[in-house]
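Supplementary Note 3. Input sequence used for the single-chain structure prediction.
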Amino acid sequence: MNAADNRLVLALPKGRILEEAMPLVRAAGIEPEPAFDDPKSRKLRFATSLPHVDIIRVRSFDVATFVAFGAAHLGICGNDVLMEFNYAEVYAPLDLGIGSCRLSVAEPNELAESDDPRRWSHIRIATKYPEVTRRHFAERGVQAECVKLNGAMELAPSLGLAARIVDLVSSGGTLVANGLKEVEVIAQVTSRLIVNRAALKVRPEEMTQWIDRFRDACGDRHAA
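The predicted structure, written as discrete structure tokens, is reproduced below.
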């Protein structure tokens, strides 16, 4: 664990999940400093209303890494990230029920008209999730050759990089706009509260208290 100080560090993801996560963070009793909500601020670490709690704001894929290596004690990230990295050091005790989407396979409309995923034996796929993708297809004897991309997945089929993609799908609007069709769902995705296992052992009362606070915050949201 990071022994620079004894403050608790909560890792939050940049992007669309943050907007849904902040009501829960605030309901759990954590109010970030004003710079957190300032779009002009370049800060990445923020003080909060609690003198012993800081927030860091990082890429969604990095939240699990910061928590796994003890740079953060708690975090919020999608189970897609947890599936991809499968860190043994990360404990995910609570499904927050936010950020709902799905991890899916998509291909061009013209290919989907006659294609049958049940007949695949070898496929080439562009994805941000090579480990999840390979495991998923290996379970049914399909060899998946994965081309790792960090974004703009929908361009891969039209530019000949890969005929198919695996990516997060919410409304499906981006797929439609790029001439793609969802043909298979790999996993349903929501965001989870995650905890560093070493922190849970060393600071059990504190970590358990925060898990309970977020659980109560989720209950209050559903009740509302």
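The mean pLDDT is 94. The first helix runs from residue 16 to 27.
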